[in-house]
Amino acid sequence: MKPIKPRLKLFFRYLGAILSENISYKITALLVTFGLFYYVAGEQHIEVNKVVPIVFRLPDKLAIANEVLPNVEIRISGPKASVQEVLPRTDVITLDLTSARPGYASYRIHSGLIQLPRDVKVTSISPSVITPRLELKLKKVVKVKAQLLGKLEKGLTLKEVTVTPDEIEVAGPQSLLDPLDLVKTLPIDLSEVRGAGEKEVRVEESFPVPLTFNPDLVKVYLNILEETELRIFPSIPIQAKTDFRYVIAPHSVRVTLRAPASVAAALKMSDIEAFVDLEHKSPGEYSERVELKSPEKVTVVSIAPPVVKVTLWK
């Protein structure tokens, strides 16, 4: 009997000869096998759901007056590759109501309204029937009101709200427009507002059926003021604007100021300057009104005394 190792060597030598023979044909066969595998996998049939929006073509004088689902759900079946190609598409179902009359009308949703590849079939549609109620379309001018939510942060006060334009034209079914005299904007969150300003806001579409607004965008101006506080400084020194030597009696004044809360809280005595203007005065005695220089947004409420005596000399 031959030893095992020599026999193994003969076996692997024989196997290598078989594998190396016609190697190009073997590689081609392997590629074809993989190709057939992926083709068969692609031909695997699957069934999935897809939501499709409905678009209504209406005559100019009619409008839908009841709530109608804006889309339908279809179930489609076919080869996996074809179905996966259909899923991301933005298909729509168009219902032609241009010859309709006022009242209820039933329209069947069928697969012929949906464009699909030939190897993809519709197995079910839900709902399969749409029943809109049509009414005469009217146009009406109504008021617009800004819809405000939340609260302003502490220290701010809403003084006035202005909407421009304050009236817009609305088009829709007669039963909805007859009682309508006011529409609102989309909500404005006051907690996010930091001061007076204007912003563009859309009209809120909170109706059971779609309405048309002209314009659908309005400007809302919020006149917001910061709450003010009084600050009293009992002794502000008075300076004289002059090149002469001087004496002022009294030499200081009591000042009362009003400012927005945030400004008033940060106000310091060094921010305020009390003075009398004597630049064009010659030596002598004068009674002069005290003037005050203060930061922006600060209003002078009172100065006491308002007039002081000044003596100038060389």
Rg is 43 Å
For the report, how would you describe the main beta sheet? Answer: 6 strands, mixed
> What is the helix fraction of residues, given as a range?
10-25%
What is the tally of helical segments? 5
State the distance separating the first and last CA atoms. 141 Å
The general outline is elongated
Helix/strand/pairing category: alpha+beta
What is the CATH superfamily of the largest domain?
YbbR-like domain
CATH first level of the largest domain: which class? Mainly Beta
- The appropriate CATH architecture of the largest domain is Beta Complex
**What is the CATH topology of the largest domain?**
RNA Polymerase Alpha Subunit, Chain A, domain 2
Tell me, rounded to a whole number, the average pLDDT.
Answer: 87
Task: Please sum up the structure shown.
The protein has 314 residues and is α+β, with helices and mostly antiparallel strands.
Question: If you had to describe this structure to a student in words, what would you say it looks like?
Answer:
This protein has about 325 residues and is α+β, with helices and mostly antiparallel strands. It has three domains: about 90 residues, RNA Polymerase Alpha Subunit, Chain A, domain 2, CATH 2.170.120.30; about 90 residues, RNA Polymerase Alpha Subunit, Chain A, domain 2; about 90 residues, RNA Polymerase Alpha Subunit, Chain A, domain 2. Helices cover about 15% and strands about 50% of the residues. The protein contains five helices and 25 strands. The strands form seven sheets. Strands 2, 5, 9, 12, 13 and 16 form a six-stranded mixed beta sheet that branches. Strands 23-21-18-20-24 form a five-stranded mixed beta sheet. The longest helix is centred in the N-terminal third of the chain and has 20 residues. The chain starts with a helix and ends with a strand. The model has no long low-confidence stretch (mean pLDDT about 85).
